[in-house]
Design brief:
The chain is mostly beta strands. The chain has 13 helices and 44 strands.
Amino acid sequence: NLTAGETRELDIALDATGISVNAISISASRRPEKTLEAPASISILEERDILQNVMTSSAEVLRNVTGVDMATTGIDRREIVLRGFNNAFSGATYILTDYRQAALPSLAVNIHSIMPNMVIDLDKVEIVRGPGSALYGAGVDAGVIHYITKDPFSYPGTSISVNGGERSFFSGAFRHAGVLGEKVGYKLTGQYGQADDWELDPNDPLDKVQLTNEITGEPITYNRAYQKVNVNGLLQFRLQDEMTLTFNGGFSALDATVLSGIGTVQADGFGYSYGQMRLQAGRFFAQGYINKNNAGDSFVYGTGLQVVDNSVVTNLQAQYDFDLTGGNTQFIVGADYDRTSPDTKNTIYGRNDDNDLISEFGVYGQSLFRVSPKLDFTGALRADYNNIEDGFQLSPRAAFVFKPSLEHSLRLTYNRAYSLPGSNSLFLDIVGRRTKLTDEFAIIERGRGTRTGFTFNSARSANGITASGLLPVPGVFGENIFQYSAAGIPTQNVPLAAVYGILYAGLRKTPIEEVQAELANNGLSLPTAIIESFLNLLSPVELQPGLPTTNVTGLGTSMLLDEPIDVEPLKSTITQTFEAGYKGLIEDRLLFGFDAYYTKKNNFISGVTQITPISVFTNISAELTPALATAIAANPLLSGALTQAGLDAQTVAALIVGFAAEDLARLPVGVVQPDGAGNQVPGEITGGYRNFGNVNFWGFDATIQYLATDKLTLFGNMSYVNDDFFDNNELEESDPGLYLSLNASKFKAKGGFAYNVPKGISFNASGRFTKAFPVASGPYIGGLPIPEEGDIGGLKDYFIIDVGIGYDLGQYFTGARIDFTVQNLFNDKHHEFIGAPKIGRLALGRLSINF
C-alpha cells in the first residue's frame, strides 16, 4: 500500500506469445494496415520466427509459410515462388528489401544468396500471395515477399553470430547500430559464408545426365566450392518528428554453381551492389535506388565462355496517402519510373546489346471506402507505359472485406496484373552449349530473345530442302563435308564414312561389359578380350580402304522431324485472379485462414524452348549395314579373325549398326534456320521464348495456428493446385510439342511446433511433405506426363523433418545464446529440382551475442 507522498516504480515486461493476432502489414496496400483488414492473403514472420533456426540462407525462413514453393538447388540456393510456376533462375515473385526490389538488374532473377537480408538484421518478413501489379507495377503477378530490416533507432547495439556445421559450412555475421545525438542513426552489417556444396551423384540417373555431355559423352566437372560475402551500411536522419531521410547501400559477391535457363552457370565473384535513398515525411513517401551487377569471371559450363554483366536498374518512386470524409475514405496516389540498362559486352545479349534498354513509367491510385462499420471496399487502378509496347497497360484491383467482428474477416477480391517480358525473354543472345565434334565442327545451341519473333518463309520456299544451314556432321578424315551454294543450300550429301565415324565413337564409349551382354542377347558369348580386339580392328582407320565413297541419300523433307512454326513477337502476360478468403481468431488461441483462387493467364511466356526444327537420317541403318559389311570383308585381318570366331561380315555389320540404330534414327543432319540477317548460321540450334495462349488453374491454401500454452505453439498448412502440367490442348495450341509445367507441387503440406521458454531453453520441429511434380525449365526436363524423347525420369515425393534446439546463455554471458538445427533429420536424400543435386541431412550450430 502506498502512503501519502510516497512514490514507487513498477516495471512490467511483456513476453510475446506464439500468435500475432492482427499484425500490421505495409506490403499489401503500400501503407500500414492490420492484416485482418488487408485486401489480400498475407503472412508475417516476426523476429522470433526468424531466429528460431540456424540456416545457410535467410530465404529458409520462408520454408514453412503457406503457399510458398521452395526448391533447394544448393547449400545456399533456393528457387522460391508463391503458388507455383517456379523455374531455374526464377524471378517470378517480386522480392523487396526495405522497399527496394532485390532482384538482379536486367536478368531479373532472385539470387537470395547475395541479397542483404541477413538473419541477424531482419525485423520481419511480409508475404503477400496473389497479384500486386495495381500498386507495384508491371511484372508483379506472382506475389510479393518483403524483407524489412531493423532500423538503428529502434534496435541500437551490436550483434555477432558465428555459424558452423556439416559440409564444412562456416559463416560469420555482424550488425552494429547506434544513434548520434537524437537525430542521426547508423548501421553496419556484414556476413561471410563458405561450404562444400551438395554434389551430383554419377550413379544417379538424374545426376548422371548433368555430369555428362549428352553428345560427346565426355564428363563435366563442376566446382562445388561455395563462398559469399556481403557488406552493407545505413545512415538515417530524423529531420522532424515525422520526417526521416535514409541512405543505405551495400555490396555482395558469390562463388557457386547456379542453374539458369541456358544451363548451369559458374558464378565466380558475381557481384551485386546497390544504393538507395528514401524519404518518409508524414504520409508522403519517396525513394530512388540503383542496383548494379558485376558478373566477375562467371561462365556457362556448356561453353566455357565468360559472361560479362554490368547491367544497371534505376528506380524512382513517390507516393502520398490521405483521408476524406472524416476518415471513411482513404486514398493512395503514386507514380514510379524504372529504367533497366543492360550492359553485357555482347556476352549475354549479343547482337541486341546496343538496343536492349527498357524504360517504364507508371501511375496508380487506390481508394478504401468504408461502406459500413463492417464492410470495406477497396478499388485501385494503375496505368503503365513502356518503350517496348504501344499504348498504356491497365491493372485494376477490386476487393470487399467484411468484418463481422474484430477477430474475423471475409474477403472477396479481383486483380488484373500486367507483366512485360523481361530482358532475357526479349534480348537474350547467348551460346548455351558448344559441343566439339572435330577440329572443324561443333554443335551450337543458342538462346535467343523473341522481341521481334522468328519466321521460316525461306525454308518453306526452298523446294523441299529442309535447312538453309545444315548441321555439319564430322568427317572421319577431317574433310569439310558440306559445300554451300550462294543461297546457303547444301550442294552435296553426307558420306557414309562420316556417319560410321560417329557410330564408332559412340560404340567405343559403351562399357565393354554392356557390349558383351548385348552380344550374348544375340546368341554370341565372347570373352571381353576378344571383343576388345575386334573393336580395335573395326576402327574407321582400319576400315578406311574398304568403306564405300557413297553418300547418305535423300536430304529431303521426309527427314524433317517437325514442320517449322513461326514464333510471334512476345506479348505481355495478363493475369486475372479471383480470390475468396477467410481469416479469424477463435477463442484467442486458434488462428485459422483459408484462401481459394482461380487464375487465368493470357500470353504466358515460356522458358527457352527449341524453335528450329531438325532433320534426321531416315534410313541410315539400311544404307550403312551393307556398306559396313563390304568394308569388313575387304579387310583380310578382320575378316579372318571373324571367320575363326564363326562370324561373317554381314552379321557383324548388322550387330554394330543395331547397337546404335535408335541413336542413328535421331542423328541430326539439318537445322531449319529462321529468316533474317544473322540467323543463317550453319550448325546452330536456336532456342527462344514464346507465348502460350491461355493457362487456367485454381487452387486453395489453408493454414492453422494454435497457441496451446504461453510457451507452446503448433502450426499446420496445406496448399493445392488443380494442375501441375499443361499440354498443348490445355494451352489451346495446335503443336503437341508445346507444353508448360508448373515446376512446383500440386500438393504440399507443412506442420510443426515451437516451444519457447523466455531466457531459457527452446526447441522446435517441423515436417514438410511435397508431392512429386514434372519439371520443364530450360534444359532441365524430367518426369513429364507425356511421351518425351530422352526423358530422364522425374522427381519423387519427399517428406523431411527439421528439428532445432536453443538455449539462452544470458545467465553466464549477457546477450549470449546458442542454437542447433538439423535439417532433413533422417537424411532422406532427394532432388527438389531437375538439374540440382540431391539434398541430404545438414546439421548446423550458431553462437550469437547481442550487446
